[in-house]
Design a protein that fits this description.
The complex is a heterodimer of chains A (414) and B (79). By secondary structure, chain A is α/β, with parallel strands linked by helices. Chain A has helices at 15-26, 42-45, 117-125, 143-153, 167-176, 181-193, 244-248, 282-297, 301-308, 311-324, 349-353, 358-365, 377-385, 401-405, and strands at residues 2-11, 31-34, 60-63, 66-73, 76-81, 84-95, 99-101, 114-115, 134-140, 157-163, 199-200, 203-209, 216-221, 224-229, 232-237, 239-241, 253-254, 257-258, 271-273, 340-342, 347-348. In chain A, the strands form 6 sheets. In chain A, strands 1, 2, 3, 4, 5, 6 and 19 form a 7-stranded mixed sheet that branches. A 5-stranded parallel sheet of chain A has the order 8-15-9-10-11, covered by helices on one side. The radius of gyration of chain A is 21 Å and the shape is globular. Chain A starts with a strand and ends in a 9-residue tail after the last helix. Chain B has 79 residues and is mostly beta strands. Chain B has one domain (3-76): Ubiquitin-like (UB roll) (Roll), CATH 3.10.20. Helices cover 6% and strands 35% of the residues of chain B. Chain B has 1 helix and 7 strands. Chain B has a 5-stranded mixed sheet. In chain B, strand 1 (3-8) and strand 2 form a beta hairpin. The longest helix of chain B has 5 residues, at 21-25. The chains are: A alpha/beta (414), B mainly beta (79). The structure holds flavin-adenine dinucleotide and FE2/S2 (inorganic) cluster. Flavin-adenine dinucleotide is lined by residues 11-17, 34-37, 42-44, 67-68, 96-99, 101, 118, 121-122, 143, 146, 239, 242, 245, 275-276, 282-283, 286, 396-397 of chain A.
């Protein structure tokens, strides 16, 4: 196995990780930046010009298409890429590995043609041709609007945007936006660019219809149900921090986010966290936190503290997002007995409903035992059944056997 | 736009360079569900769900959404 060493390891080359890397490199600190995606940029930029300023920096080791699969020993990460496994030892570690979408089951959600909301945006950003296709975007939160804009720009016809939150709730959120002028401008621009797209509140997807592929979507708005024919359905219910690695490292988490102090230190010495991981608050929060962490890591404590004062307003933004786009009870009741909840192992809602806990569900149904390791169904079961801490187990990501073979300390492999 | 030639289940396909394999599959099913015959395709688009697994140049279980196409790449789907 290849052995690598660095001063600062950064997991995640999104806005948070890139901001920290830039500060550390300018200071002359060796940085190893690791990302699962084929190019830096994170969820929002996905490649593009992200990180271009740093490319080729002599102190930067950029490992793209590489994922952290485990944390086998103190100050050591196990990495895997198409070229095989490597072990990276570090002095400091910044976790900037972002968030994924909350994806919840409903009848028909496994049909080809149904994707996550940010998921379809990601596919389009990576080249999916949607010209002239009819698309419905549904779920919750501002990401739906960003997705609609990307889809429109790529030539798709967005025939309906459906937000589960009520009009009152979304309006209250919009009224608060003047606290964050940049976000207000962005929202107004989005509103202007999407003015031809019907945007319904208090509306959710009841079912996706079709035999081997999506053909139509049944939407519920208040007491009324309508069916619309379409080519793609993109549904996502907001974002959830990727906590697996932080947990594997023993960092404290609270209410689904990694706990940090005012200068982004986690409960583990020499481990820092920034971006969506510490609370879903968007790109400005992620970049600011990356900078704060970067400054602290290069020993500029006073500058980090000074910058940290600006963090409060983004924490308020994160709280406003969570409050105004919280899920209506109906969203947790969409699955019927034969709806698949665990996509990897094909475990249906009816079997899970007979279990009393995540542990029992795993034992009796194999729910969460497939390659996604409960990343989707764990979060779904938390929402559907209220099971706490449903989801991941080591390794952080499914690793090939040969990767783990070099590492007896990473237990499970299935 | 630079174009690239790949093969999906032996069939030649032309796609834009820098596309991901999942984008090249364009929603066609790439696998069958466990113990069933239901077709599945890319879902999360960001490497999390593992629904997009395909065989790429002989290496099985690759996530199509996290791999970029390369000239001459051969992709095998199970569905
Ligand atoms: C699908 C999606 C689409 C979005 N689109 C928009 C948009 O259009 N506009 C907007 O304003 N906001 C958008 N957002 C929100 C925005 O992306 C975030 O606010 C911002 O990117 C957060 O930055 P971050 O650095 O915290 O994390 P991210 O940008 O999420 O970056 C985290 C990175 O870590 C990597 N990673 C995760 N786990 C591992 C691991 N184990 N090993 C190696 N690498 C790993 C991921 O591949 C990712 O590149 C989107 C979010 C998502 C999830
Ligand atoms: S589509 Fe989910 S992992 Fe590729």
């Amino acid at each position: 196995m290849r052995e690598l060493a660095t001063e600062l390891a950064i997991v995640g080359a999104g806005p948070a990780g890139l901001a920290a890397a830039e500060i550390a490199l300018r200071h002359g600190m060796p940085v190893c930046l690791i990302d699962d995606n084929p190019a830096p940029g994170g969820q929002i930029w996905r490649g593009g010009q992200a990180g271009a300023a740093m490319a080729g920096h002599p102190k930067l080791r950029l490992l793209t298409a590489t994922r952290v699969v485990a944390a086998p020993a103190p100050n050591c990460l196990l990495l895997e890429s198409a070229d095989g496994a490597s072990q990276l030892s570090y002095h400091r570690l910044l976790l900037a590995n972002g968030a994924r979408e909350r994806l919840l089951p409903f009848p028909g959600w496994t049909l080809p043609g149904v994707t996550g909301a940010g998921g379809l945006q990601a596919l389009v950003k990576s080249g999916l041709d949607v010209r002239g296709k009819k698309v419905i975007i549904a779920g919750s939160g501002p990401l739906l609007l960003a997705t609609a804009l990307s889809l429109k720009a790529a030539g798709a016809q967005v025939i309906q945007l459906a937000e589960q939150a009520s009009l009152a709730s979304v309006s209250r959120f919009a009224l608060h936006l003047w606290h964050w002028p940049g976000k207000l401008t962005q929202a107004l621009m989005l509103g202007w660019q999407l003015q031809q797209v019907p945007y319904a509140m208090n509306t959710h997807v009841r079912a996706a219809l079709g035999n081997d592929r999506l053909q139509a979507v049944r939407l519920r708005r208040g007491d009324e149900e309508i069916e619309l024919a379409c080519d793609w359905l993109a549904v996502g219910y907001g974002l959830l921090p990727n906590l697996e690695l932080a947990r594997a490292l023993g960092c404290k988490t609270h209410h689904g986010v990694v706990e940090v102090d005012h200068v982004m230190r986690t409960s583990r010495r020499d481990v820092f966290a920034a971006g969506e991981l510490t609370g879903i608050g968007g790109v400005d929060k992620a970049q600011l936190e990356g900078r704060i962490a970067g400054l602290l890591i290069i020993g500029e404590y006073d500058r980090a503290v000074a910058l940290a004062k600006r963090r409060r307003r983004w924490l308020r933004f994160a709280a406003a997002l969570e409050q105004h786009f919280s899920l209506q009870p109906a969203i947790a009741q969409l699955a019927s007995a034969d709806t698949v909840v665990c996509r990897c192992e094909d475990v249906r809602f009816g079997r899970l409903a007979k279990c009393g806990s995540w542990r029992e569900a795993k034992l009796h149904t194999r729910c969460g035992m497939g390659p996604c390791q409960g990343r989707l169904c764990g979060a779904a079961c938390e929402t559907l059944f209220g099971w706490q801490n449903a989801g991941s187990r080591p390794p952080v990501f499914p690793a090939r056997l040969d990767t783990l073979a070099g590492n007896p300390s990473t237990a499970e492999v299935t | 736009m630079t174009l690239i030639h790949i093969k999906i289940n032996g069939e030649s396909v032309t796609v834009a360079a820098h596309s991901s394999v999942a984008a090249a599959l364009a929603g066609r099913p790439n696998r069958l569900s466990v113990g069933e015959t239901a077709p599945r395709a890319a879902f999360c688009g960001m490497g999390v769900c593992f629904e997009c697994r395909v065989t790429i140049d002989g290496q099985s279980q690759q996530r199509a959404c996290q791999v970029l196409v390369r000239e001459g790449m051969e992709i095998l789907c199970d569905a």
